[in-house]
Amino acid sequence: MKRKGIGYASIFYGTGYGNGFPDESRATAELTKEGQIIISVGVSEVGQGGLSVMEQIAVETLKIKKDLIKLQYNNTSKMRDSGTAAASRQTYNTGNAVLDACRKLKDNMNKVKTNKNLENLYVQMKDCNIDTKTEGYFKATTSEVDLETGQGAPYWPYTFGVQKATVEVDDETGKVDIIEVTSAFDAGKIVNPITAQGQIIGGSTMGIGYAIMEEVNLNQGDIQNKNFSDYIIPTSKDIPKYHTYFIEDVEETGPYGAKGLGEPAMLPMAPAIINAIYDAIGVRIYEYPATCDRILLAIKNKNK
Amino acid sequence: MIINGKSYTKKIDPLLRLIDFIRDEAKLKGTKEGCGEGECGACTVIIDGRAVNSCLVLAASVNGKEITTIEGVSQGKLHPIQEAFIEVGAVQCGYCTPGMILSTKALLDKNIDATEEEIKESISGNLCRCTGYQIMIEGIKKAQDKLKKR
Predict the structure, then answer these.
(1) CB proximity list for B112: less than 8 A, separation 6 or greater
(2) Residue A198: in which H helix or E strand, if any?
(3) What is the pLDDT averaged over residues A288-299?
(4) How close B5 gets to chain A, by Cα (Å)?
(5) Residues A30, A55, A215, A263: which is the catalytic one?
(6) In this structure, are B9 and B62 located in the same domain?
(7) How far, in Å, CA of B123 to CA of B140, rounded?
(8) How far apart, in whole angstroms, are the C-alpha atoms of residue A122 and residue B122?
(9) Cα separation of A208 and A286, whole Å?
(10) Does A229 sit within 8 Å of B39, measured CB to CB?
(11) Rounded CA gap, A176 and A167, in Å?
């Protein structure tokens, strides 16, 4: 018989490398003589939407039409390092560096009074010896935790999130169907709602995989299930109905109030599903993933 | 064979896979190889109206057939499916996208009124690790509306 259950889980997760590890981002903003603004930033775009976010921050800060701004990226011969697209850090850390560079350029541009176009502005700035190229920099301020005293500030800022999973568990076969997932996250001000929602839904789907499907089977260090036919990840038929909400509690140190949002999206999903399974059939699963055989075994042990 | 309306005649190794012919002989790099063993769907192309994993097909076996790759979907301008994917934000890393769009096209060419279940079934052979599928499904529904209005 199929039994329905609801489970919740919540997390908080620090943005950036943390623990005092050097965490720096850099960006350059330059007004060219052709009247274009070039933002050079070492953000790695892997589909998470980092480029869109940097462009939005630049447009917002410079208050200039989007087509006059050109983003230069992914070329280490033309820009300085902004660290990895990891630790959910690019929007917060590199976004802050872009903000810094653009604010400085904007200040310089404001030193010259002109209502003409950017080409004229460039000429006037050069005449007045004002820099048309500015460097932006951001370093996260974290410190290593003292293991003796427990003192230290390992991360700043923190992203908060809670997810609710509604599942159906078949107590005869052990199969779990995820029916509905609701997510609510506080990642500060959301810079790009479309890509942020994409991160949440994608992360949740990965969390579903970890909760009920994905397992690396090792035999003396050798992975036994190396293919997609035996290492199963969610397909379009395994996903629930997703609902996503953002609580936009502005983070004062973030670019326009933003915090990190990448990994946090994935974290509460698996424990929420395990809690929902408990709610449905009254058994606790202590080993991921909650596959049919583990659930049936848990039911059998409970009924002993 | 005919790829995107262009005829290709070539002497080839009988063991050459269709994906290698498309990428290396026809030089159409939009078709991606993922797993290379028919499990992920990244290399999906349309052969005579059916969505097929091009890594599992020998090029010689499609002699005379009509093949559509992602390059053949947009004719001068973006196809409504592509427009819809962009509008809703269905693309993240993009590696599964060409295959996803071809599976969608094969479905909608046959059944423009496909239900959500039919849509999910038709793209279930295309694995995606980063989007979570839901926005793609919304994109496909939007493409249905666009195609009906044409």
Answers:
(1) B144, B147, B148
(2) helix A193-212
(3) 97
(4) 31
(5) A263
(6) yes
(7) 10
(8) 55
(9) 16
(10) yes
(11) 7
What domains are defined for chain A? 2-15+155-303 (3.30.365.10), 24-139 (3.30.365.10)
Annotation says A34 is catalytic = no
DSSP E strand boundaries for A15-52: 24-31, 37-41
Cβ of residue B115 closer than 8 Å to a chain A Cβ: no
Q: How confident is the model at residue A113 (pLDDT cuts 50, 70, 90)?
A: confident
DSSP B77: B
B34 & B58 share domain: yes
The residue out of B56, B72, B88 marking a domain boundary is B72
- Going by their DSSP bridges, the two strands A69-72 and A37-41 should be labelled as parallel
Domain co-membership, B52 together with B91? no
pLDDT at B118: 98
**Residue A111 has which token pair?**
């030193």
B86 touches chain A (CB under 8 A): no
| pLDDT at residue A75 tops 90 | no
Tokens of B148: 């009906």
Dihedral angle at the C-alpha atoms of B6, B11, B14, B16, nearest 10 degrees? -50
Q: What percent of chain A has pLDDT over 90?
A: 94
**Which residue range is the domain that position B145 belongs to?**
80-149
Q: Cβ B129–A237 below 8 Å, yes or no?
A: no
pLDDT mean over A234-251: 98
- CA A211, CA A163: separation in Å to the nearest integer? 13
State the CATH number of the domain containing residue B20.
3.10.20.30
Q: Check pLDDT > 80 for residue A116.
A: no
Query: Residue range A106-116: average pLDDT?
Result: 87
Question: What is the band of A18 on the pLDDT scale with cuts at 50, 70, 90?
Answer: very high
Phi, psi of A76 (to 5 degrees): -70, -10
Q: Cβ B35–A205 below 8 Å, yes or no?
A: no
CA distance B32 to chain A (A): 16
Q: Which of B72, B101, B127 is the last residue of a domain?
A: B72
Both B85 and B67 in one domain: the answer is no
d(CA B137, CA B144): 11
